[in-house]
Amino acid sequence: MNTRLLLACVIVSGLAAPAFARNYYIVQNPKTLKCSVLPKKPKGKTVVLVSGSSTYKSRSEARAALGAAAPCKKHL
What we know:
alpha+beta, three-stranded antiparallel β-sheet
């Protein structure tokens, strides 16, 4: 009985773990120069990563860094 419960807990935590590992990125639109925060890494040329390879663990942390990013200060 305890083995089944333990196995169920391991499976549930293994499936839920990727949901907690979300990273946020600071990006800038090259045409409008407007900066924003995205929950996934952009793949196209419509936006450019401002923070290089830096990722942020929460949206609030990324928004705080958004205000400090040099390319974004003028265009917030």
